[in-house]
């Protein structure tokens, strides 16, 4: 025998069995060798094992990447929407599949705004166009409407090699950016939009992180401060941590339906000037997790404040289609800025964001989005394109999906009636579920829920007795994390504690999506009600 896997007789099958035996730590039994040769093989095998032990000992050297040596900014990142409670929900799901008995039969994940995961049906026209772009042979099929084929052909003509599988320009496919600009002009009543100011992104999150990355600079007291609402969507605090920027909190007014007060903005800004250089103001409208829709007057006040204090405005408008309350209307920051006159419109730097993930579409998985950035310094524009080029381009299928959001069927086209029926059905259902959730929560002692004016979440305030707060401390948990963990373990309902979004000291909340089908949502709300009453009885 010449060693592991080398057969003296030239037999490949025997060589393979020999090597496999040695790898498994077994003595190979070679049918071609006489007994003495087999004994020699055994001695060789023992030597190989000893050598392997030494190699393993060397392999157990200290790791290069540890919690101590890793990037501290990454370690500081927290994202509550997919945090510890969601990991616990996953563990419980595995236990249920193994047949382990629980007081419930399924985990209801109400922690995230993932419409299709909650059973919402896709918009037919959007899927038809993306299917045609993905497999162009379908363009010859009579099963697809002509208006869908027309859009698919236009998108494909903008792709390299007429294929969705090619890279696009870093800023996105040109014809889709043109469609986004046309959409913004229609939405804003004729306010001009330039395709050159449009950047297609991997969801809105990618655009927000990119703009923050290019804005953050300085050190010590000159380090960039980023003003964010509290409660906030944890993307912002996570991105700020990763960039080692300074988070500057301003509080929304819960007693006034989560309104934004400019006096609170001024307090926050003035305090922050003592330890950083605040130069970015983030607004989420409609609000996440709070669901408020800002009035025109509020937006005007915010724009004037940003102009006065020389702040770069970030307007997160991904829920612009999700407005439910009577008397509420979505106003884009771009439109109001334009209508305030040239002194504002030509000077205030504004980045606005939209996405395929929310609205009536709910196409989270495509990761389609765009940002419009206006009044950017020409040299910075080049730097932004350079930064975007590092990630090559956003997913081209997501760009195609975004195109259908901004360029849907119009009256007179073949698909219009089905499209508008599906769109209105989704939005009307969400409006009903928003009112149902608000009404049911406000009937529960110890829970208060502001009107859900927009978006797709409830953020009720919950009363937690002092005895429960003390028990939470023994578990090294925030009180609302303790509450939400108990809710999950006893009912199977997964929601996100308010501490993951930020809240005023001494107040407790949780965020819950209203996306489940109406009947399941009713069951969910009844379970929360029963749990909360028992929780109060136990800890009061």
TrEMBL record:
The keyword Transferase applies. Its cofactor is pyridoxal 5'-phosphate. The keyword Cell wall biogenesis/degradation does not apply. One of its GO terms (molecular function) is L-alanine:2-oxoglutarate aminotransferase activity. Residues 128-527 form the Aminotransferase class I/classII large domain. It catalyses: L-alanine + 2-oxoglutarate = pyruvate + L-glutamate. InterPro entries: ALAT1/2-like, Aminotransferase_I/II_large, PyrdxlP-dep_Trfase, PyrdxlP-dep_Trfase_major, PyrdxlP-dep_Trfase_small. Keywords: Aminotransferase, Pyridoxal phosphate, Transferase. GO terms for biological process: L-alanine catabolic process. Pathway: Amino-acid degradation; L-alanine degradation via transaminase pathway; pyruvate from L-alanine: step 1/1. Its EC number is 2.6.1.2. SUPFAM superfamilies: PLP-dependent transferases. GO terms for cellular component: cytoplasm. PANTHER family: ALANINE AMINOTRANSFERASE, ALANINE AMINOTRANSFERASE 2. Homodimer. Belongs to the class-I pyridoxal-phosphate-dependent aminotransferase family. Alanine aminotransferase subfamily. Catalyzes the reversible transamination between alanine and 2-oxoglutarate to form pyruvate and glutamate. This is alanine transaminase.
């Amino acid at each position: 025998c010449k060693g592991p896997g080398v057969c003296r007789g030239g037999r490949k099958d025997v060589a393979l069995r020999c090597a496999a035996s040695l790898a498994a730590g077994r003595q190979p039994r070679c049918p071609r060798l006489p007994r003495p040769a087999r004994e020699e093989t055994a001695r060789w095998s023992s030597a190989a094992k000893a050598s392997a032990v030494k190699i393993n000992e060397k392999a157990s050297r200290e790791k290069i990447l540890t919690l101590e040596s890793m990037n501290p900014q990454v370690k500081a990142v927290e994202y509550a929407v997919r945090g510890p409670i969601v990991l616990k929900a996953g563990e419980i799901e595995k236990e249920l599949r193994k047949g382990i008995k629980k007081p419930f039969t399924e985990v209801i994940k109400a922690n995230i705004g993932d419409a299709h995961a909650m059973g919402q049906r896709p918009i037919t026209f959007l899927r038809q166009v993306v299917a045609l772009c993905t497999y162009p042979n379908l363009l010859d099929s009579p099963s697809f409407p002509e208006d869908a084929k027309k859009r698919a052909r236009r998108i494909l003509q903008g792709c390299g090699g007429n294929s969705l599988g090619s890279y696009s320009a870093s800023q996105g496919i040109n014809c889709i950016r043109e469609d986004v600009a046309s959409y913004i002009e229609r939405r804003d009543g004729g306010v001009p939009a330039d395709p050159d100011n449009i950047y297609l992104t991997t969801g809105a999150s990618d655009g927000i992180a990119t703009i923050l990355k290019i804005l953050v600079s300085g050190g010590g007291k000159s380090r960039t401060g980023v003003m964010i609402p509290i409660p906030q969507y944890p993307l912002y605090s996570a991105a700020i941590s990763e960039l080692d920027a300074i988070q500057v909190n301003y509080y929304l007014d819960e007693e006034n339906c989560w309104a934004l007060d400019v006096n609170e903005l001024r307090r926050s800004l003035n305090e922050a000037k003592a330890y950083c250089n605040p130069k970015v103001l983030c607004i989420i409208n409609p609000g996440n997790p709070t669901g408020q829709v800002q009035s025109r007057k509020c937006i005007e006040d915010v724009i004037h404040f940003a102009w006065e204090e020389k702040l770069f405005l970030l307007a997160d408008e991904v829920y612009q289609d999700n407005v439910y309350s009577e008397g509420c209307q979505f106003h884009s920051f771009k439109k109001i800025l334009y209508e305030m006159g040239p002194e504002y419109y030509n000077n205030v730097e504004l980045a606005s964001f939209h996405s395929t993930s929310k609205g009536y579409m709910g196409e989270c998985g495509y990761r389609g989005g765009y940002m419009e950035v206006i009044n950017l310094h020409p040299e910075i524009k080049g730097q932004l394109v350079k930064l975007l080029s590092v990630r090559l381009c956003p997913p081209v299928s997501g760009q195609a999906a975004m195109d259908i959001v901004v360029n849907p069927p119009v009256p007179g086209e073949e698909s219009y009636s089905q499209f508008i029926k599906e769109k209105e059905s989704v939005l009307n259902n969400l409006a009903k579920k928003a009112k149902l959730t608000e009404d049911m929560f406000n009937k529960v002692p110890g829970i208060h829920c502001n009107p859900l004016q927009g978006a797709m979440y409830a953020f009720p305030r919950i009363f937690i007795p002092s005895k429960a707060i003390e028990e939470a401390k023994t578990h090294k948990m925030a009180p609302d994390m303790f509450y939400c963990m108990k809710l999950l373990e006893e009912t199977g309902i997964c929601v996100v504690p308010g501490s993951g979004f930020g809240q005023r000291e001494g107040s407790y909340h949780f965020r819950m999506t209203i996306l489940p089908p109406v009947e399941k949502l009713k069951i969910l709300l009844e379970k929360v009600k029963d749990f909360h009453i028992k929780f109060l009885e136990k800890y009061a």
